[in-house]
Amino acid sequence: MFAIVSREQIAPRFHRFVVSAPQIARKHRPGQFVIVMPEELGERIPLTIAQADAAAGTITLVVQEVGKTTMAMGRMNGGDSFVSVVGPLGTPTHIERFGTVVCVGGGAGIAPILPIAAGMKAAGNQILTILGGRTHELVILREEMGAVSDEIFFTTDDGSFGRRGLVTQALADLIAERGRPDLVVAIGPAVMMRAVAELTRPMGIKTWASLNSIMVDGTGMCGACRVVVGGQTRFVCVDGPEFDAHEVDFDLLIKRLRMYLPQEQVARERYLEQCRCHAQGGHHG
Amino acid sequence: MAEPLRGAPELPRSERMKVPRHPMPAQDPHTRRRNFDEVALGYAPEIALAEAQRCLQCPNPPCVKGCPVGIDIPAFIDLLRRGDVAGSLVKLKETNTLPAICGRVCPQEEQCEVVCVVAKRGEPVAIGRLERFVADWEREHSPVSVPELAPPSGMKVAVVGSGPAGLACAAELARAGHAVTIFEALHKPGGVLVYGIPQFRLPKEIVTYEIDALHAMGVEIRGDFVVGKTATVHELFWELGYDAVFLGTGAGLPYFLGIPGENYLGVLSANEFLTRVNLMKAYDFPHHDTPVRPGRRVAVVGSGNVAMDCLRTAKRLGAEEVICVYRRTRNESPARKEELEHAEEEGIDFRWLSAPLAIHGNAEGFVTAMQIQRMELGEPDVSGRRRPVPIPGSEYEIAVDTVIVAIGQGPNPLATRSTPGLALNRHGNIVVDPETLQTSIPGVFAGGDIVTGAATVILAMGAGKQAARGIDAWLGRLAAGEVEKPRLE
Fold first, then answer.
1. What is the ipTM of this complex?
2. Fewer CB within 10 A of the terminal residue: chain B, N end or C end?
3. In angstroms, what CA-CA distances link B423 with B118, B135, B420, B431?
4. A85 touching B (Cβ < 8 Å)
5. CA distance linking residue A157 with residue A133, whole number of Å
6. Which of B230, B263, B290 lies at the smallest CB-CB distance from A226?
7. Bridge partners, residue A104, by sequence
8. Which chain B residues touch A43 with a CB distance below 8 Å?
């Protein structure tokens, strides 16, 4: 069992968990993730480690409510426990002094980019950060990202915060104004990462994306997470999660992420129904 | 207290040969293909005793030589016949840590039973079924018994992986007085016994019982711990304070076919399919959260025991048609005969001499069909089996919505790659000393599928036991100051 030290809602449907996992906190490197199984009958889902505190023996996870599992996690609190947390998994980010690194984070992808930006900053890179979300409140972790960035820019789809539009537009303008960066790291929805890759490919700017595929064990045993990179089948859990964004078959990734949509809907509706029953019963406070 | 089993008289030798082998009671095929309950129901006590009477008690028994771990088969059968089931189990456990499991999943027909002298004039003694009976009877009628443990040695051993090799190794080491921790990557211990072999062939309660027995012996099990990631082998020695390490990490890396269309949605490895259903209990979705796509027309590529498990599982999940695609014939199929027969009884459509050429899908990326090449058998290949050769122009398509690839597994590299200086062969398997099972690193031992490539439960279990002896000897030398723990950084 892995004790939840705290849960804090940081935006609509976004929660920040601090979880006691000393061995993982000690070994964590930027870019790595854990597989969490919240409860006994639960499923195993991959979550990137947003921060790790080796001294306190804790890791920070940012969870967006999208399906049954993450919605149920949003109702857990400090004092509760996750049944299983295993990691740190995946190949750590290759960190070195590249020069200028642009970190592009969209929606839930902002959390995993935080430790990478911090690591790149510590290695002496200039960090230019672009964060985007649908609306004002969904541009999460602004302060944390600001602290590890030399400059930071924001976009929202509705223009409620920062510049109106997509992160790719901000990135295109940034490149036009400042010249080519040495590296772009993009993490966010697959469509966003694909758009960033398409933008930087003709310019020949080295670009990495961190892929968020479906996993079961997370140790290379099942192959559920496989993607095609440079024409080769690769396992996100052990070969990734980061790959050369110009080589990733994003169309395939997007399709594979839709694999269990009907089942996900069944689970979500069943869960919401149960929540309604509890609420109507009114005995559970 | 359980009622003791009344023994059966010893039959004259000539009479024993006249008793026919007792069939195994099994669930009716029409019923069982819709449930996950165990198929083979086990002998009733009177049947077990009657079967035990068939054993000739050969003075120089070939069955013992046929057993990979050399169980004293005539002795355990004789004790059973006399009604001393507890004694029979002790005899089994001298060489086999997991008789309830091996009695179910061992390929006896090619090990002990194939050489049984009774088989020369009839059918062999049902050694596996008797082994299962003894273990089941004791489990159901006696409390968990803790074997006598040697006084604490003060030595700590890390066992990596909780499959058959790790469980057997841990039990032996605990008996020898060492403090043992098993490190398991998944949240539940048991390895392939839990994620791989389905409930209908090996009920999980049996694995749980064996794991409880290890707990009772003082063995600690740490789940959610991936050696190579959560800690390296070096850290097991120098930060977590272990004095020896056993690597029993198994064959957990799925092989794919390398044919076009393999990444369509609905194409999955046997490991993924079985892990979803067995470990994560996807058959009970949405009560359990992990989903599995219930295929209507399912093709399984391969014809080994894992393929049989996938075929029969797909049937139980409600598939209308379940097709086995294998490029050789039934004769070359590596599956146990019993598994093949069970699959046939359950209505699996076997397409022998059929090799998958390509997988087709629709615009959404889902599998729709598999293209198959008809084969014929040619000259024998290096394995001694006749090589399948394509018949030109014989390609055809079958409509499928799920393809499960069950063509074998390789060694999982997470632990081995993170251990500098560990000698591997060209397949990625660990190289060990055949006697002690020590690897190229002193104090690090290995056994099971990670050494041999995908093999059987009994071989892995035997290797775990053998390694425990090597580790025990090494710990003795460590205590005497003759050797030192390795530094791997």
1. 0.93
2. N
3. 45, 38, 9, 6
4. yes
5. 7
6. B263
7. A130, A186
8. 280, 288-291
Q: How far apart are CA A235 and CA A215, in angstroms?
A: 10
CB A57 within 8 A of CB B261: no
Interchain contact, A270 vs B187, CB within 8 Å: no
- Distance in angstroms (rounded) separating the CA atoms of residues B53 and B15: 9
Is residue B63 a contact partner of residue B116, using CB atoms and an 8 Å limit?
yes
Here the tokens at position B198 are 């389905």
pTM of the model: 0.94
Q: Which of B272, B288, B364 sits opposite A224 (nearest CB)?
A: B272
Which two structure tokens, joined as six digits, stand for B23?
């069939």
- Please, where are the H alpha helices in B317-444? 337-345, 414-417
Nearest CA in chain B to A233: B263
CA B249/CA B164 separation, integer angstroms: 10
CB contact under 8 A, A220 and B412: yes
The pair of three-digit structure tokens given for residue B145, joined into one six-digit string: 């018994």
Q: Nearest by CB to B414, from A37, A228, A238: name it.
A: A238
Q: CA–CA separation, B427 vs A273, rounded Å? A: 51
User: How do strand A81-82 and strand B267-269 relate by DSSP bridges?
Assistant: unpaired
In 3D, which of A207, A205, A103 has the Cα closest to residue A151? A103
pLDDT in single tens digits along all 489 residues of chain B: 456 788 999 999 889 988 999 999 999 999 999 999 999 999 999 999 999 999 999 999 999 999 988 999 999 999 999 999 999 999 999 888 889 999 999 999 999 999 999 998 899 999 999 999 999 999 998 877 778 899 999 999 999 999 999 999 999 999 999 999 999 999 999 999 999 999 999 999 999 998 998 999 999 999 999 999 999 999 999 999 999 999 999 998 999 999 999 999 999 999 999 999 999 999 999 999 999 987 999 999 999 999 999 999 999 999 999 999 999 999 999 999 999 999 999 999 999 999 999 999 999 999 999 999 999 999 888 878 888 999 999 999 999 999 999 999 999 888 898 999 999 999 999 999 999 999 999 999 999 999 999 899 999 999 999 999 999 999 999 999 999 999 987
In B228-362, DSSP assigns E strands to 244-247, 253-254, 267-269, 297-301, 321-325, 349-351, 354-361
Q: Do A87 and B230 touch (CB under 8 A)?
A: yes
- Chain A's closest residue to B406, CA to CA, is A222
Which residues of chain B make contact with A232, given a CB cutoff of 8 A?
Answer: none
Q: Is A148 exposed, middle or buried (0-12, 13-18, 19+ CB in 10 A)?
A: buried
For the beta sheet containing A163-164, the strands, ordered from the edge strand earlier in sequence to the opposite edge, are A163-164, A151-156, A126-133, A100-106, A183-187, A207-210, A242-244
Q: Please answer yes or no on whether A69 and B229 come within 8 Å at the CB atom.
A: no
How close does chain B come to A126, measured CA to CA in Å?
A: 30
Of A68, A221, A258, the CB nearest to B252: A221
Nearest residue on chain A to B251, alpha-carbon basis: A221
